[in-house]
## 1
Amino acid sequence: MAHAENETTISRSPEDIYAFLADGLNNPKWRSGIQHIALQSGNPGAVGAIYTQTLTGPGGRPIAGDYEITTAEPGKRLAFQVVAGPARPTGVYLLSVAPNGTTLRFILDLQPKGLMKLMGPMINRTMQTEAAQLANLKSVLESSLPNETA
């Protein structure tokens, strides 16, 4: 299994961070490699919402990375499953109150199948890079004013 996780503390409330993460249209503000994203179906941030996204893949070629929100517990937990594309990991954001804001933990898991198993090291590097982007999220959220998170 490929696994990546990262944790940071952000000087914002769990509710602010959750609201920002739950709206997938905010992803390009802090995640590199997103060429396009749109809400395909459902209500933004709600269980069952599906976001279509085009990501920059190997060699710069576009790849699908559509995902569906599978768990939505405002201020606490937001989980998703990638439903299109060559790799289909699951991810979860866990939020908890910290002395100086909110501790945000991001966990990404993938069970490679078939020929995907041969690409394990490359997949693992990609997942580690994705988890490391929490630093970008922290920067974006801490530099915005309270009413600018949505």
## 2
Amino acid sequence: MLFPDYRPRRMRQNENLRRMIRETRLSTDNLILPLFAVPGKGVREPIDAMPGQYRLSTDNLVAVAKEAAGLGIPAIMLFGVPGKKDPLGTGAYAKDGIVQQAVKAVKNAVPGLVVITDVCLCQYTDHGHCGVLENGVVDNDGTLDLLARTAVSHAKAGADMVAPSDMMDGRVAEIREALDENDLAHVPIMSYAVKYCSAYYGPFRQAANSAPKAGDRKTYQMDPANAIEAIREASMDIEEGADIIMVKPALPYLDIIRSLRDEIDLPIAAYNVSGEYAMIKAGAQMGWVDGEKVMMETLLSIKRAGADMILTYFAMDAARLIS
């Protein structure tokens, strides 16, 4: 169809016409809110690089969880920032660890809210890597049992879903087996299957104090230049038992989300990460962009690319606009 027989503007003349043919719709059902749990009481510590985000003690985190649920957000993702760190990241799988405490508190206060937990060691190790070190190198196989122990401890505390973000080879299978052996077969795994070694994580690393003390994460997180590898990573995690596949970051990797959507039939999550959030916030604070409009356009683009769910620090702001 060509002009003048076809005039696309006919269907753009008013909002109701535009609504009738809208192809992609963003809903609160698509949103997951990440939260940072810290020890203590009454703690609401601003994160400088992420305006509007805070490190929260359990009491304040519960209050935010209640507010999120009231806005129609179906799930939160919990990250722990412990008071002490050590080489083996023992706080990650401690029975009374900060995430375990936060899970129990949230499930007690807001039982219907889905609580997902990040399963990784980087926030808990004193060296900042996502696995244990052997002679200065991340020991893939030596890390797997600790990740499984972490996932089981989260699930026993009441987590509805666990989300390994470490990018160790074989960790989904190890976690699935451990959950099943502990009568936790009902707990799904959201795998950070396609996690790139990205510069967009900077504000998160400030928030969680999780930057590596030496070296980088290029030996386990994916090369930003690679796309075909994303299909292999996702396929491997699916074979190992993943229930949801995640792409992280989201905005610079919309092509990856789209290619996975075309290749796999599992639900796909995308993480609108801290750097993406911080750039929009900074631009809005400077008056260079309309923060709300850019936020909603960004989230819509992630949904349009094929994501079923979006982890985003904008979740509550977006939910207020959607409602």
## 3
Amino acid sequence: MSVIQPAVEIPFSERCRNGSFKGVLRWHQLDTFWAALRNAAGKGWYIYAVGEAVPDSPSSAEDVQRFIDEIDALLRREHDEDYCGIVYADDLQTPALIKIFDPNNLGSSCGSSMNPPKPGWILSLQQPTDLTDTAPLPNNRRRWWNRLFGA
């Protein structure tokens, strides 16, 4: 008789570091991605700005919608390229973990570097754990985050 083992949840930091992610390459694809995410805004997303306090509860659907609007505006304003390529998800159709890289701290976001940059922001259905390193969050990003969520 075989025993069914319960599913083991992969720790958040391991999912971020070693998970398989697909990039949103074009701006029109990002529009489609955001539209799908807006429809799933009430699923219990945690919004985490790496370098800030880890959220202890999921964001409201309204906060997710506002974050999408604001991060989209920031990315389009500061990533002056004809392609996107800085938003990655574990699944582009039904994401559970989304990494958004800061246009001002890209390095090699594809992970080919020995020290790839950490994402600037993460949306996750799993509660995040602290991913900070020794680099402090730049003041302009801290002000942007505080304006958005009044932290």
## 4
Amino acid sequence: MNDSANGSSGSSAGVVDAVVQGIAMPGSVVAKMPEPVPAHRNIMFTWLAGSMASCGAVTFTNPFEVVKTRLQLQGELAKSTPNMVKPYHNVMQAFWVIGKNEGLRGLQKGLGPGYMYQIMLNGTRLGFYEPVKGVLYRAFAGQTGESQQQPRRPIIALNVAAGGMCGMAGAALGSPFFLVKTRMQSASNFAAVGFQHNYTSSVDGLRKIWRDGGVRGLYRGMDAAMMRAGAGSSVQLATYDHCKSYISRNLAHRGFNDNSVGTHFLASMVTGFFVCMVMNPFDVVSTRMYNQKPSAAGHGGGALYKNPLQCFYKTVSTEGFFSLYKGFLAHYLRLGPHTILMFVFVEQIKAFGKKYI
């Protein structure tokens, strides 16, 4: 009797163990239970990590964003002539002029809406990049997952697609904040370029845009921003992914493993250059689409450009092809350190989550 009870008890315990460990007993129908998603790879955690990292990065790089914006708007739709007055001659001179005449507040214009834009853009694209990439790998490559023992074979095309999709989604969500940020950064009482909107704050800007153009006004230029973020994000996330994997595979013996700050730094340096090359033309168009004055018709549209393609055409036909690379150095000085800081920050936040959460 006792033996029977003990046997029954032992059998029950074996089934429980089999369920817990995911090992099917002979003749049983016990299925392997799915492993729980680690907290550091949870979408909410990665979204928060991306938001915090990008906000930390933009605090240091926003001054170069102000310089870039003004260089891109300078001489808008005007043919270059020897006598053309240009208040900003190059990156360093523009930085000095803005700092001297407008102070630190001038160099940090648009930082408030810049934080909100970073949360919407980078929180979304960094938070959802891995889940979207996982879906694409399962759908098109039959790869169901990865582990430290069996890492997933990288496929650049799928990484590019995942990065582009997430970037476009983030740009759409953050478009109103990018709109206000651009207009605040172009405003100057000393050396004005482009149309001057003269917002006193982020809230004042959003209120005036809503009053004059409603929802359409708030989302003017969103299509250009989605092209900009889609191009940049597809290159940035895929290139960073590939560079980090390459460095950790080939330089692990020198201490550059997957979790090394040095690995993240090197991968980010390479990534920043390629992103800037691809993104700058879209960035010029996006800046001009956002900053143009409202249409006299009062329907929330712009007075200079109806859509990004027209902006491309008018910019190149009037100012030449290389006008699409206006502010390139300022863009790289902003984007390079931003990429480095953002990825180093986000990797360290993830490492903290992996260790303590």
